[in-house]
Amino acid sequence: MAEQQSVLVEVNPGEFAVFGGLDLNGTTIEPAPLLPSAARKSFEDTISGAIAVGNVGAQAVAALGSFAGLVRLSPATLEAIRAGATPMSNGAFNLGSLTNSSGQIVQTVQWTTAGVAALPAAAAVIGPALALMAIQMQLAKITSLVRENIRLTDAVLEELRTERWATVQGQHEGMLAMIGEARAIGAVNDNIWQNVQGNELVLTGARVEFRRKVDRHVASLNSATSPIAVREILDHHGDAIVADVQGLLQAQAAWFTYQAIRAGNLHFNIDKDPTAAKHIQTVIANAREQHERDLVDASRLIDVLVRRSSAMVDAKESGSIPFGKKRRAAKDVARAGKILLDQLSSLHDGWEVADPPLQSPAIAAVEGGVVPDNVLRVLRWHLRPEEKLHAIATAQDQSSSRNHWAWKLQDDWLVAAVTNQRIIVSKQKDLDARGEIAGEIPLEGVRYVRYEPGTGKPNRSDARIDIATAESDLNLKFAEWATEGTDRGQVDTFAVLLRSQMRLPAEEVPASPIPLPHTGAASLRGVESTQARNST
After folding, report:
1. What are phi and psi of 19, to 5 degrees?
2. Could you tell me if 111 and 187 lie in one domain?
3. 147 within domain boundaries
4. CB within 8 A of 14, min separation 6: which ones?
5. Residue 495: which CATH number?
6. Is the Cβ–Cβ distance between 276 and 194 less than 8 Å?
């Protein structure tokens, strides 16, 4: 008998069904309790046949081990398996090796990322089983997350858990108990299903309740037209946002587990119900779609809150922020938010939750040409994904009070940061003390930029940059340091950068109310005069 090898078959991007086990540190094989024994046997037979077809003379046919469960492999592990892999003849399977830290081969693996549907006759035979396995991998992550959440001792998160949260937690524990029974007997039989099916309205109602609360928070943020407005929403409703996101995660977990059990019972009856295969696909697709939507909106809310509190921590570690009806230490709010972001990212592969990196601008129109570290640390929390910091300037605001900005900066020293998307404006004292920005000007809103270079003594004059938008002007006056040397050069370059963004859309240029002479009209009048003379 040929030596048994591990076989990995991708059932979802980065997620594999494992045959014959897998000895890899840090990797856990998740069981598939919802998959009936008959479906497992069909799965094993299909993969075994595909491997036999793929065998070529130089490769010995390995005996296929039994289906062990599901595993998620990191991109680095997948790359390691791919390195030096030898394709087999059917183009679906490859032969690769796993090595330890010393470079020694510890396991040979046959694997495919083509998906089982690409293998001969597989789609029709085991398609429903594949769908069930894909949802079970997600279920394993949800179950692990909920249990971790229950063990959390973070003071902010514990305080905001409501009685409703505890009720939903109890319902979810009931669903998990049924998953345990299915694992013990090898199927979600009708007895298990009858024990849970009456919970659908309660579980759906809990999820809808928290979903609506999250929707209201998202709508409120979408309606905010300035950083100040966003900050006011977070200061007044930050505690409710955290509580409702926690509630949605718990309710979503219970509801998703119920849908997985439902799909498992449909598969149990697949031989008796000709519609079951299609029904399984529908149930799973809907569950995953709703799950994805919940994660996206919850993550957006928590990300905004983390950025607000983290900016204050980087400005002043001992600072506190309004949090509902009380004030909380900014570092406590930031920590609680990051815990929730970590949990959300664990449910959605590919999301990054690392702190945004510091960016150094190419242009520093500040005294001495060096931007203080605290300014860069704070600004990183205000930069959007893919936004690049190009320049920073410090100047005094000389704008008239007639300018209707969302902020009031008259005569204050400010920090102006230019990115590839906008001009970020902040009072310097607010940025330093609370990590706050005042507002922004989209680059497409810049209509004209006037620059008056400064001159030194004896006829000293201050450098000025006037930025005109369609509605208001921002007038910046630089201090004496901006009149000479390399500092003067940086201010000059800052002005050039702003001037390069000037634009006047054609739709904002009105038609003249009176006829204006131009080449075409003059030529026409000349023709008309010639014709008049000839007619006389």
Report:
1. -115, 130
2. no
3. no
4. 72, 73, 75, 78, 349
5. 2.30.29.30
6. no
